[in-house]
Each structure stands twice: as structure tokens, then as C-alpha cells.
Give the backbone structure.
Amino acid sequence: MKREKKISVVTSYDYTLASLCDRAGIDVMLVGDSAGMVMLGYDNTVSVTMDQMCMFTQAVSRARRDALLVSDMPFMSYQASVEDALRNSGRLIKAGADAVKLEGGVAMAKTVRAIVDVGIPVMGHIGLQPQTTMLSEGYKVQGRTKESAIKLIEDAKSLEDAGVFSIVLEMTSREVAQIISETVSVPTIGIGSGADCDGQVLVIQDLLGMYEKIRPKFAKRYMNLSDDITKSLQDYKKDIESGAFPAGENSFSMNKDELEELREQIGS
Ligand code: KIV
């Protein structure tokens, strides 16, 4: 799709929303380790486990019809050894993913090559790397200086050489994202990295306006679902208290003759 059609990517973690993403024609569903924050309530992605990622991947794969399904390798599932990386990427594929994503550039190229060599497609992820930079630097735009731009370009090239089929660029300056997108042959997927990437990814809770803890500047809210959901739940509570719910149409009745017979029997 590179240079032909922009690629739409959205995170998915559960069957219900994944079914809607697939029905909407989203190109790639990413089971991101952001699940740790938006689904499990952690402050960052570091605590997410392989078992949790496999469970989210299985749920999304049951919903998937057409979209490509990419699953994140969680923190410390690939950093300690290539053997870990192979075993854990295999687990995600067995859980239903078509491909895996991992964070890191030059430092991860050898690991990426090993995973690709056993036949598992890999998506790279450079720029802000929440699994590690969140612990030291926090949310900080990457690639604003010449040195950091050069490092990012080298990261992207090393991932391309290692065989990734695509690279996520998270919170990089627009200019670096444009240079990388023009330089590498694989599609770049931006998140907070400007319009020149080959595709865009957003966390679905940000897009639907459902996650209130952090509101990233780069995310566009297409609706305010948290307000709508809160209002609906308040209406539901009111209806229960007033007796407006359940109404006749929400209930089931007995056969009239059976009811009469029952009343007679109970009465006698
Ligand atoms: O975990 C995630 O949601 C991600 C995207 C932000 C790219 O990695």
C-alpha cells in the first residue's frame, strides 16, 4: 500500500470492538500493550504479561474477518534473549496474530532478524518507546535535534535491513517522520508523528473518547463515548429506581391457561 493508499491502524483488545473495527474496514488491528493501561488500569505498559497479550489476541482473532492482526510483544518478552523472542512471538502467532510488533531500532535488529527468519512477520516501533523511555524520560517528542534525528533514521534503516514489514513511528517530529517515510521501502505507521507517514494508528479508547486518564495532544476524538456511556448508565439507574425498566416489552409472560390452572392449584 506504500505510496498508493494510506493505511488505517487502530488498537483492539476485545471481541466486541474488534468486530466493529473489522466491519468498518480498518486495515490493521493492533493488539497493543497499551491494553495494560486502557483495559487493565496500569499506569504504563511495563506490567503487561505474555498471558494477558495472548488472551487479548485470542479475543480479537475471533472477531477478525479481513483486517491484518498484529500483536505487541510485552516488556521483557524479547529483550533478554533471542530464544525468549522466538518462543514468545510464536505464542502470539498461535494465539491468532498474523504478525508481532516490538520496540527498538538498531539494538533490536538482531532479534527482529531471528524472528523474521523463522517465518514470523515483524512490525518495528521506534521514536517514543513506552516500554523503556516512559521509565526515564516520560512522554517526550523524539527527533527534534539533528543527533536524535540521525539516530532515528539509523534505527529505521536497521529495522528495514532486518526484515520488518512496517515501522511504527511514535511521537517523532514531523520532519523526521517524513524523511524516514521517504527513505525506507516499508510503510511507516505514525502516532503523533504527522501526516507524512504511510499510515496512522490510534488507541481506540482515544479515538472514541473513552479514556480520561491521559488525553494525548496528537489523538483526534471522533466521539465522546465516556459522556454518552455515563449518561446512559445514569438513565438506566433512574429507570430501575422509578420502575420504568423493565417495561412490558422487556418481560416474558406465561401461557394464560397455564397461569389460570396454576392460580387455581395454588389457591386450593
Ligand atoms: O501499544 C500500543 O497501543 C502501541 C501503539 C501506540 C502504536 O504500541
Remarks:
- The two ends are 77 Å apart (CA to CA).
- The mean pLDDT is 96.
